[in-house]
Amino acid sequence: MSFTADRLLLFGATGDLSRRMLLPSLCALDADGLVDPKLQILGTARSDLDDAGFRNMARDALEHYLPENRKGGIATFLNRLHYQPLDATTLEGFDALAAKLGTPERGLAIFLSTAPSLFGPTIEGLRHGGLTGNNVRIGLEKPLGTDLDSSCRINDAVASAFPEKRIFRIDHYLGKETVQNLLALRFANMLFEPIWNAAYIDHVQITVAETVGLESRIDFYDGAGALRDMVQNHMLQLLALVAMEPPVNYDPTAVRDEKVKVLRALRAVTAGETVTGQYRAGAVDGGVVPGYDEELGHDSDTETFVAIKAHIDNWRWAGVPFYLRTGKRLPERTTEILIQFRCIPHSIFDRASARLKPNRLLIGIQPEENITLSMMTKLPGLDRDGIALREVPLDIAMPDAFTGVHRRIAYERLMLDLIEGDQTLFVRRDEVEAQWQWIDAIRAGWDKEGLKPKAYSAGTWGPSAAIALTERDGRSWHE
């Protein structure tokens, strides 16, 4: 849709995501002059607040979560905010919500950050309130279901009121600068694309490691686990961007067409190609932390760690394993992609001091955004006993390489794209369903095998079986 919205409606406006990410992102965009001066933002939730109460809550959140150098525009931004309490489970409040919202001059953007059980009733309420017209688009925050069937029910409910071209499914990883840089790295550099295939790449690793435990997500996480929470969305989106074919051009349809081809080419995982774990008491960042069952308050078979050996059955990636791992209470917080190239076919440096290491490309996504390419170079010296080689990183992790003047929150880009109507960094329905099909098959395999999570100590890199997953192929995790 070509319109730029002049009304933004935030469901779940008093929740944790709104306070930590959405309001700070919108305030930062406002301070940089990137949103239309006419944009008005209406928050809604169950909380019984008025405009002043919501602005006070927003001010507290912005003072806490915005960096000091970005707080100058808080007062101006607060003037954009309004609030209308709403119980989304009934239709009664939606007329008042529509009246408070008023009539947009150009269009309305809606951001839905609610429990999955409220998606259906909220869509019905929006339809009842006349808030589903041609000048309305809707953004959906995850989780979009717990399996393919529940995801389809949610998508069917949304599709009953909004066509696909007005649905924006958010995966906040796609708003990160280095994730977007994957496309530039591959398709704007002759250096990489000709060798981005099975002939030159030995394997790929994608790691999303967290040091935290359950935090405030106890109820959600125990019903989801690491596979649904991280692999189904963030990690499969990263895999798709690494593995996709060149799109015809950089537009939403072309980019997402190529991503969904990769997701549909994922081979079904077989026995022995996954490892699951659950953390026990240990030490993280120098402090003693409890085990998962202790945090939860009872025993559970939910996995807090998963490692997968995946394959993409197409011409480009035949025979190249993609190793995925994610977990909680790991030694460090990091999200990274490792592209491990093959060894050169023949070395002219045959002395022991000249042992070669294959090149590798390390793409850091968080906590620091950087790209490092390892190269073999000559060790300085007279070489009386032959040339000695060493591995040297070509590192472009200089300040502001990927952040510009400010280090932007991923939601800044996504909220701006929702307001302006650019779907490129949002997930299409067929992508979501292809992801769920692969994930559901893995879970079905676990149930068939009676697979239970293996214990690992907090502060370690997961169960020893995860190490064996790569070691038996003659490879090692990057740590």
Question: Could you characterize what this model shows?
Answer:
- This protein has 479 residues and is α/β, with parallel strands linked by helices.
- The chain folds into two domains: 163 residues, NAD(P)-binding Rossmann-like Domain (Rossmann fold, 3-Layer(aba) Sandwich); 298 residues, 2-Layer Sandwich (Dihydrodipicolinate Reductase, domain 2).
- The protein has 13 helices and 17 strands.
- The strands form three sheets. The protein has a nine-stranded mixed beta sheet, with helices on both faces.
- The longest helix is centred in the middle third of the chain and has 26 residues.
- The two termini are 44 Å apart.
- The model has no long low-confidence stretch (mean pLDDT 90).
